[in-house]
Amino acid sequence: AFGGYEIGTSGSGSSGPRTVAVVPATPSGVGAKVLKEDDKGEIRLADVQSLPQNRVLEAWVRRDGEVEPVKALFVPNGEGEASTTLGDLHGVDLVMVTTEPSGGSRAPTSAPLVEVPIKQS
Which of 66, 76, 78, 106 could form a disulfide with 82 if both were Cys (CB 3.0 to 4.6 A apart)? Predict the structure, then answer.
């Protein structure tokens, strides 16, 4: 369940990040939300199981049919939440997260924990 995992604005008068896609809990049990501000994005995960010591999460974006890794590797915290910045989302139609060896990979080596379709505005 992904209930209660909501991002609000800061209340400072700016519109703040805009949610562009939410994926409720998948068969893996992981829920995902992609936030976008201007052309930059962030993915936030909930209910991620702890990872073996030699594994990390790696995000990927699909743009023009090509899958590219996101530069930062990340791991869930003790509450099962994890997030990373995605960089430029211009032209991206899908964001995925996989578990990878601790140094990351040049291409996904496991099935995605989540796949988040992105509609371009």
Answer: 76
DSSP-derived secondary structure letter, 29? S
Tell me: the pLDDT tens digits for 11-55? 334 456 676 777 766 677 899 999 988 889 999 999 999 999 999
On the CB side of 49, CA atoms within 13 Å amount to: 12
Beta strands in 4-121 (DSSP E): 18-23, 31-37, 40-46, 55-63, 66-74, 82-88, 92-101, 114-117
Full-model pTM: 0.81
As a whole number of angstroms, the distance between CA 84 and CA 13 comes to 25
Maximum pairwise Cα distance, the chain: 43
Place of tokens 């700016």: 14
